[in-house]
Amino acid sequence: MKQEKIYLKDYKEPAFTVDSVNLDFNLNEDFCRVVAKSQVRRTEAGAALHLNGEELKLVSIKINDKPLSADQYQITAEELIVPSVPDSFTLEIETELQPQNNTSLEGLYKSNGIFCTQCEAQGFRKITFFFDRPDVMTSYSVTIEADKQKYPVLLSNGDRIKIEDLGNGRHKAFWKDPHKKPCYLFALVAGDLGVIRDTFTTVNGRKVNLEVYAAHGKQERCWHAMDSLKKSMKWDEEVFGLEYDLNDYMIVAIDDFNAGAMENKGLNIFNSRLVLADSNSATDVDFHSIESVVAHEYFHNWTGNRVTLRDWFQLSLKEGLTVFRDQEFSADMTDRGVQRIEDVDALRAGQFAEDAGPNAHPVRPESCMAVDNFFTMTIYEKGSEVIRMMQKIVGRKGFRKGMDEYFRRHDGQAVTTEDFASAIATPNGKDFTQFRRWYHQAGTPVVTIQENFDAAKGELTVTLEQSCPATPGQPHKEPFHIPLMMGLLDKSGSDLKLNCDKITVNSDGKNLIELKEQKEVYTFTGLKDRPVLSILREFSAPINLKWEASEEDLYFLMEKDTDSFNRREMAQKISLRLLHKLIDQARNKQALNVDPRFVKAVSAIIADESMDPSFKAKMLQLPSYAVLAQEEAVLDAEAFYQARTALRQAIAKENRGALLNIYRKFHNVEPKSRDTKVFGHRSLKNQALTYLAELHDPEIMEIVNKQYWEAQNMTDRMTAMMILADSESAHREKALQNFYEDWKNDSVVLNKWFTAQATTNRKQVLEDVKALTKHPAFNITNPNNVYSLLRAFGANLVRFNDPNTNAYEFYADKILEIDTKNPQVAARLCAAFNFVQKLEPAMKEKALTQIKRMVAVESLSKNSRELLQSALS
Ligand code: ARG
Ligand code: ZN
Q: How far apart are CA 201 and CA 804, in angstroms?
């Protein structure tokens, strides 16, 4: 297999324009015929016609209705080439496909008897020979012919023109999309599906038909997705002035789907786990994810579809921006402070790890082997942070001005991240030349802070220095333009007025330091007493802050900062210092000494009746293992586990009564409510229960067991099941058995059962997971099954890296097995090996042996190969 890299610097404008394309699908059980008829014009004199196409059977090719003879074209593994074509012509290509055998789940495939498509990034080339690149945009008309009984629902993008009964048991649907689009946004669905319907009236009074499709019997679980869609449509009108532009908006839930969802124009296709929900079957977190992913795909209609990508290296242009938009939407729907904490936790656990590992890459990469490997935390989540920094610098009002300018300039175009940055900068009189390094340089910058207070002069000087670790291919980095939102607090915890001429005040009136040099000094004058510095408020930049603040200041900020993000951040910082000591003690086989001061501070939080419950739940959360793995020089999973458990136990022991009070106060209060406030109460009381379970106290385990059996919603049931699954309680087996019996015919829900067993700290979890891969309910060709069992286990740092087992070997076997069927899914599992360089020598050796074994497999996909190879260099 050819393993070539593609480079951004090789980008060339397309040599042809397509004025329109008509796609005619004839769907059958054992084969499908596709006729693609395009109106093509050459824009580069003399250019030969190169069309992308993979794994296709060509039936015929015609130019201006004349069939080409075999010597007039040539087919390679990746292209169809016609050396000589007229300047303007009709191109007709007929291909034959076998969707029923397509296990890669890209292009046209079948899921539970339903035909569906996934074309992003490069799946369209598995449907027909075409210009499979985002900068070739054209108008689509589509016809779909299929058996009327088996496939009553026939969907594609745009407007429904008509449906004809062909009289022979078959029918044919006609669709036309009035908007030009790149082929990665094409979609088709044909099947026997249930549907729910509603309407939305846009700000200009246009009525839009909304439809959500799912397997028969599941459609009643689609109402939350429908509500989320309506909220998103309204929010985008209100916040960004963006109105929907078609008469229909359709969402289809599919069980076999590589990713979360896809924003195909007017016809989103979703992984059913991100559509189906009711309080019996979905947790509060599921409801929240569905709302945000429905919003994400809807927001793509403007950021992605109306304005699209010039090339795949620009992927973050739409993904970073659309994640930013969905995060803002979620902040408005729930609690802004808590939402920010969740988004930063995810960024740190996932993206910071990626940026520090062998597969670090810039937000706008310069090369790649497999385009599908670009769907990363860096492109999405760090991409969103880059947008957020722009918004911090210019303020919310300024940002809106910039967005308006972006659509004014680029509606209907395929553009670059540079075009975006320029549209935001210009109307705000800003220069983002240096800022754009965030797009080009990988790695998480480190900023160190030195403070000095001169009491005689009443002056505080703050010295900031930045650096950025080397990343693959980028040994040296230029300084970044870093916005640090900040404040100074007086003794009572009130914000002081800042006297410093180097501070930027943005259009929201927020104070920012804009660090641009490698080192800069800021002097704040007119201070009576030493103030306490609060910096990186709201996590205004995706950096690692090295700040040797005194314990006094950290505790002060944790209690009093006016920025709620920073209060929680200080709690994390203190816990990390403590965990670091405990890990050291564990590694040296010493007794673990938990600092009573910290336990006392946590107890005060637990007892604080005035603190918002959902915020309190965040305050009580200790840093995850993924964060510890980044903070610590060595990934010693067992020591991490002992340290974190010791700290949690100390907190639980000291607060047994108070935690039980929280539990009793909020348990079963409005158990069916989906109100944000009730979500908060539930998350706090379930967190109290999880802490209490650390005590291994039979009385507590009775409460857990009772919660499992009497649960009135999935959040409570799942919490109890996870605690039981991770225990040696006599109640364990019965609960797991019961959950299985209840949900064995519901694959979306049963995935929770796999995850609960893959994420425990039990020593035998590897054996559990191995056995589950042989369970009749586990299907290795279903991505959700793979993710909920195998990927969840790979992310279980403690047991995946347990020196007493060889999980790596088992995992490598599974990656190889999946890789032959579905390279995209296999590649997603490879991330479990990202920490390899941090392992202790013996473990590292074991992991490298497996990576080498996988890379040595000749037929390994380029997707997996690209990610594994880098771990070796
Ligand atoms: N564009 C989709 C989204 O962000 C994701 C598609 C994922 N595709 C893939 N090849 N992994 O909503
Ligand atoms: Zn997206």
A: 61
Query: In this structure, which amino acid lies at residue 57?
Result: K
pLDDT above 50: residue 70: yes
Residue 578 lies in a domain: no
Tell me the CA–centroid distance for residue 261 and ligand 2, in Å.
8
pLDDT at 599 over 90: yes
Q: Are residues 104 and 166 in the same domain?
A: yes
Distance CA 817, CA 9 (A): 35
Supply the range of the domain harboring residue 468.
446-548
Residue 774 counted as domain residue: yes
* Mutual angle of helices 284-299 and 714-725, in 10-degree steps: 120
Say if residue 2's pLDDT is above 90.
Answer: no
Q: Report the number of distinct structural domains present in the chain.
A: 4
Domain closes at, from 414, 440, 466:
440
Contact at 8 Å (CB) between 616 and 605?
A: yes
DSSP 428: G
pTM higher than the cut 0.70: yes
Query: Do residue 44 and residue 159 come from a single domain?
Result: yes
Q: Are residues 773 and 793 located together in one domain of the fold?
A: yes
Which atom of ligand 1 lies nearest, measured to the CA of 258? 11
State in Å: Cα 340 to ligand 1 middle: 23
Looking up residue 475, the CATH number of its domain turns out to be 2.60.40.1840
Q: Which residues are near ligand 1 (CB < 6 Å)?
A: 120-121, 258-259, 261-263, 296-297, 319, 372, 375, 824
What tens digit of pLDDT does each residue of 683-698 get?
Answer: 999 999 999 999 999 9
- In CATH, what number is assigned to the domain containing residue 785? 1.25.50.10
Domain match, 474 and 363 both: no
Q: CB within 8 A of 71, min separation 6: which ones?
A: none
Nearest alpha carbon, ligand 1 atom 7: 259
CA 758 – ligand 2 centroid, Å? 28
Smallest-distance ligand from the CA of 326: 2
Q: Are strands 503-505 and 511-515 parallel, antiparallel or unpaired?
A: antiparallel
Ligand 1, residues 184, 262, 867: which to mutate, most atoms within 8 A of Cβ? Answer: 262
Rounded to the nearest angstrom, the distance between the alpha carbon of 104 and the centre of ligand 2 is: 20
Same domain, yes or no, for 373 and 518?
A: no
Within this chain, do residues 431 and 505 fall inside the same structural domain, yes or no?
A: no
Residue of 109, 120, 315 to mutate, ligand 1, most atoms within 8 A of C-beta:
120
Question: Angle at the Cα of 478 (from 472 to 483), degrees rounded to 5?
Answer: 110
Helix or strand (DSSP H, E) at 652: helix 637-654
Question: Which ligand lies nearest the alpha carbon of 260?
Answer: 1
From ligand 2's centre to the CA of 103, what distance in Å? 23
Query: Which atom number of ligand 1 is nearest to the Cα of residue 319?
Result: 4
Counting from 1 in the atom list of ligand 1, the atom nearest the Cα of 300 is 12
Which ligand sits nearest to residue 271's alpha carbon? 1
Ligand located closest to 119 CA? 1
Q: What proportion of the chain, given as a percentage, has pLDDT over 90?
A: 99
Residues labelled as active-site residues: 297
Q: Is residue 569 assigned to a domain?
A: no
> What CATH number corresponds to the domain at position 96?
2.60.40.1730
- DSSP strand pairing (248-254 vs 207-214): parallel
Out of 408, 440, 472, pick the residue that ends a domain.
Answer: 440
pLDDT band at 3 (very low <50, low <70, confident <90, very high): low
Please report the atom of ligand 1 found closest to the CA of residue 322.
4
- 312 class by beta-carbon count within 10 Å (0-12 exposed, 13-18 middle, 19+ buried): buried
For residue 371, give the ligand 1 atom closest to its CA. Answer: 10
Is residue 186 one of the residues assigned to a domain? yes
The answer to whether residues 67 and 151 belong to one domain is yes
Q: What is the dihedral of CA 598, 603, 604, 606, to 10 degrees?
A: 130
In the reported structure, the alpha carbon of residue 757 is separated from the centroid of ligand 2 by a whole-number distance in angstroms of 30
Of all protein residues, the one whose alpha carbon is nearest to atom 2 of ligand 1 is 262
Task: Measure the CA–CA gap between 250 and 593, rounded to whole angstroms.
Answer: 57
